[in-house]
Design a protein that fits this description.
Tumour Suppressor Smad4, alpha+beta, Rossmann fold, 15-stranded mixed beta sheet, 8 helices, two-stranded antiparallel sheet, 2 domains, globular
Length: 353
Amino acid sequence: MAFGFAAAAAMPKPCLSIKANQSSSLGLSDRADDHVSRSKKNFVFIINPKGANGRTGKEWKKLLPYLRTRLGGHCNICEYITLAPSHGVDITREAIREGADAVIAVGGDGTLHEVINGFFCAGQPVTALERGPGYSTTLGLIPLGTGSDFARTFCWRNDPHEAIERIKRGFKSKVDVGIITAHTGEQHFFINVADIHLSAKAGYYASKYKGFGNLCYVFGALRAFIGHENRNMKVKINGGDWEVFHKVTAICIGNAKYFGGGMKITPTADPSNGKLEVVILQDFKWYDFVLKLHKLYSGSHLSEKNVCLRSVKSIEVVEEMSKGDIYIQSDGEHLGFLPANCSILPAAINFFC
């Protein structure tokens, strides 16, 4: 999913509701089949059946009877299958407009990423058309994907049955959402980690090897190292003065802690503290990643002398001598290339925890 960053592919109009052969309305208010009652809450489940090399779709079918047993008594289970990239964004927006009580992402970080972006339109939160101003739709997650890195921040196992029990309990907390603003002014939202340069390039190539499971991250990293060079970058934090960071290997901007299939890249991040944690890796060579990989996975890399940590409300990043080829991604989705500005939207969404 790329949008208006330098040299990025064009996106559809951000609020255009493209339903991929579904009607423009989800019909939540008047559905009346065996599992739907007007007197119960509407929980919309968005599933990417191709996630995790097709495993998500298969596991979802097995999970449905248990889901109906545990949740069917107090909510309508409204199931929607994504049929194309960004389809989850459109379904989420329509569900919220029609007053859905909850939208639950079923899959990995890519599906969650689409659902998060569906909570917003043209830079503003999507609202229910016939509900009061204080009403909000709750976000839920059933991790069934390749990485499921966001769930790791909460120490959740990749167990869909446990996720259903969390949803059934109904405990909620507010979570922050990160915003990436392109030079065009277009905005994109993320809930986990946004990153720049080598790690973003590795993520881009990892997406080509999803059929290999978590090995896709290894293959992506190996491919990204081909032709890689560290670059000088200018960084502006919280609207202050520009700082130059020399020989930058990667910049990781965490609302949560993990990315890349379990790498604890921003270990101090907390998705409910109103801040982004920024980790800047400088002058890393390929052998540094081999020798220090265990530290990146354990989160102990912050003690390295060529690793810088900053806690920010906003960060702007440009290349000192721009070549237009520095990759950007968020939640594992390729967005384009520098420049970019990241900021935090505190307590943006209710989340089943």
